[in-house]
Amino acid sequence: MEKVIIKAVKRDVIGKKVGVLRREGKIPGVVYGHHINPISILMDRREVTRAISGLTSSSIVTLDIDGEMHSALIREKQRNYLRNELIHIDFQAVSLKEKIRSKIEVILTGSAPAVKNFNGIVFHEKEFIEVEALPTDLPERFVVDISNLEKIGDQIRISDMKFSDKITVFDDSNDTVVTITGIASEQTEEEPAADSSEPEVVEKGKKEKAEE
């Protein structure tokens, strides 16, 4: 992936005065880490929104803070959902030579035959898997193919997945990642089931919280 550089300046303004900066198109943030004192920063909203589009929690970015470079991970994004815009970002500065723990998102791909043949539902039980690795060895995401789930009750566990020998997985290998359930809603003759190649997915997990 192309190197992502985010320019920022140190920020002295805090509290309610930050709202003025947001109205001027700026986003406040903070950088913390094991080897540095927390740094309050300020970024251009348009530039940072474009820069982090498509990045995951394991994507490494380079923060240019007044000319001082820091490798970092995006740890939290606060968003105003009414205005559909970012309002704050937390970064964790990391050493590229030290292993860190991170939760990696699990993405499902493919179509499960059990959905079409038995009216099953794809139940996505585990959306993140916690691993440890050097920052440069952290995967962007884990992609799980569900095309071999043929009947109700079929499932994929962590033990069924393949991982690089450069990472250590901390979740239980018996944890279920995805399973096919038979809790399908009844269909009437007037409302036949729609023919769709995309399985219905029941999601678990926390979502980003909007700032009140």
TrEMBL record:
Pfam families: Ribosomal_L25p, Ribosomal_TL5_C
Biased composition (Acidic residues): 187-200
Domain Large ribosomal subunit protein bL25 beta, residue spans: 99-181
Biased composition regions of type Basic and acidic residues, renumbered to the chain: 201-212
Region (Disordered): 183-212
Ranges of residues in domain Large ribosomal subunit protein bL25 L25: 6-91
Annotated InterPro entries: Rbsml_bL25/Gln-tRNA_synth_N, Ribosomal_bL25/Gln-tRNA_synth, Ribosomal_bL25_b-dom, Ribosomal_bL25_C, Ribosomal_bL25_long, Ribosomal_L25_dom, Ribosomal_uL5_bac-type
Keywords attached to this entry: Ribonucleoprotein, Ribosomal protein, RNA-binding, rRNA-binding
GO molecular function, one term: structural constituent of ribosome
Assembly and binders: Part of the 50S ribosomal subunit; part of the 5S rRNA/L5/L18/L25 subcomplex. Contacts the 5S rRNA. Binds to the 5S rRNA independently of L5 and L18.
PANTHER family, A to Z: RIBOSOMAL PROTEIN L25/GLN-TRNA SYNTHETASE, ANTI-CODON-BINDING DOMAIN-CONTAINING PROTEIN (PTHR33284), RIBOSOMAL PROTEIN L25_GLN-TRNA SYNTHETASE, ANTI-CODON-BINDING DOMAIN-CONTAINING PROTEIN (PTHR33284:SF1)
Family under the similarity heading: Belongs to the bacterial ribosomal protein bL25 family. CTC subfamily.
Listed name of the protein: Large ribosomal subunit protein bL25
Species of provenance: Flexilinea flocculi
Gene: rplY
